[in-house]
Design brief:
It is a single chain. Helices cover about 80% and strands about 0% of the residues. It contains 22 helices and no strands. Helix 5 packs antiparallel against helix 6, helix 9 crosses helix 10 and helix 9 crosses helix 18. The longest helix has about 30 residues.
């Protein structure tokens, strides 16, 4: 029954039907074909999103739109350039640092590409970086927003797994720092070897003024995450704080966003959040199908038959997730896989929080890989670089990502230590 539903979902998605509709239709048709009761479907759909914590999703999406419209991303870029632009490959470093900071407010990889992407690619190209390299680095660094707290995807997966959202967000900080550090090393090495990005000597006084001017924008992640991890605010309240803070800064401090633009931004955020939440609702029905069919138990037995070593289980699962992430929508894949794989992970002794964050990090790589990566298409659009050339230019960055994923699988402390440190 489960395989029938997954196959039907794949066919509908390949036919161009929206993911949420494909998943819901596949689940409903499966229940009808196998003569299962469908009276509870509405209840499953309702309970899958009946959580106050999920209010954070539209609010963080709205904060990202406000940052884009209010040009706060330009302030973040300017501050990063003033700090690390004097290094060889400095603008590449600025790209990485800027995406890390922006992700700490928006929680959306595609928002990173749309707002910071054109600015980063144009500046790097003007400084002598090949356009393909500039676009590839922008694409990969944008995926940091799906890992850096407050990642929208992390909120979704943690809620689906029944894990603490605050702990999952904190757990993403370790992998994000590791991946960001790996990309900084790669960019520095490539820039020195190929002569990219001559250092830009910004006078100290000018750099100091730029940093001071950017403090309201760059201070947002500190205020939001500090409040959340200190226990002063919940993740949902932190999302509301993110919206309030970014609106105040954009409107009053930088005077870069008229209040008349806010209703349109709310509508955009609502449409995007509606798509995400509809996928969650239909995934709730799919989870019911898996449960009735006993798929989680069969998956647990299959994994235990292969190996009972937690490290090997995580590595094998990581390989499968990389392949799945290349072909499936990342939100749908997460919500389908969590109820299937989580019981198996618990059976072999893998910490559920470790697995949840690991799954998000592995599937986030799919945002930048062909054939269906949303960041891949978004970056190709803003950079005017063909998808195949963009993917080839990103091969060394994919390699860094894979090394980080292997380290995460083998060393749970990369995830669990910051989670325990920040949330107790």
């Amino acid at each position: 029954m489960s395989l029938f539903m997954i196959g039907l979902f794949g066919l509908l998605a390949l036919a161009g039907i929206p993911v949420a509709v494909s998943l819901g239709a596949a689940a409903m048709l499966t229940l009808l074909v196998y003569d299962q009761p469908i009276l509870m479907v509405a209840q499953f759909m309702y309970t899958s999103v009946d959580s106050f914590l999920l209010v954070a999703i539209p609010l963080f999406i709205l904060a990202g739109h406000v940052m884009e419209q209010g040009r706060l991303s330009e302030q973040i870029f300017g501050a990063a350039e003033a700090l690390v632009g004097r290094l060889r490959g400095g603008l590449g470093h600025v790209n990485i640092v800027g995406s890390f900071v922006f992700g700490g407010i928006s929680g959306s990889a595609v928002a990173d590409v749309a707002s910071l992407g054109p600015l980063e690619i144009r500046a790097m190209t003007e400084r002598g970086y090949p356009r393909e390299y500039s676009a590839a680095l922008t694409m990969i660094t944008a995926t940091l927003a799906s890992i850096v707290p407050p990642s929208i995807l992390m909120i979704i997966v943690a809620a689906a797994a029944g894990e603490s959202i605050g702990a999952a967000l904190a757990g993403g900080l370790g992998p994000a720092l590791l991946l960001g550090g790996g990309l900084l090393l790669l960019n520095g090495s490539v820039s020195r070897r190929r002569g990219f990005g001559a250092p830009v000597r910004v006078p100290f006084a000018e750099a100091w003024r730029t940093v001071l001017r950017s403090l309201p924008a760059t201070g947002a992640p500190i205020i939001i995450l500090g409040g959340m991890f200190s226990g002063v605010v919940t993740p949902t309240e932190a999302a509301g704080l993110a919206v309030l803070y970014t609106v105040v800064v954009a409107r009053l401090f930088y005077r870069s966003m008229p209040l008349a633009a806010l209703p349109a931004l709310c509508a955009r955020a609502g449409r995007m959040a509606g798509t995400v939440l509809l996928i969650m609702m239909t995934a709730g029905v799919a989870t019911y199908v898996f449960t009735v069919d006993g798929l989680p138990a069969r998956m647990t037995s299959a994994l235990l038959a292969l190996t009972t070593d937690p490290d090997m289980v995580m590595l094998l699962t990581g390989v499968a997730l990389v392949v799945i992430g290349m072909f499936m929508d990342i939100i749908a894949a997460s919500l389908i896989l969590v109820p299937i794989l989580l019981p198996a992970m618990k059976a072999v002794g893998v910490d559920p929080l470790h697995f949840v964050v690991y799954l998000v990090c592995v599937l986030s790589m799919g945002l930048a890989t062909p054939p269906v990566g949303s960041c891949l298409f978004a970056t190709a659009q803003v950079s005017k670089v063909p998808i195949e050339r963009l993917a080839i230019a990103a091969l060394p960055m994919y390699a860094v990502n894979l090394v980080v994923l292997v380290a995460m699988a083998l060393f749970p402390a990369i995830i669990l230590w910051p989670a325990r440190l920040l949330t107790g």
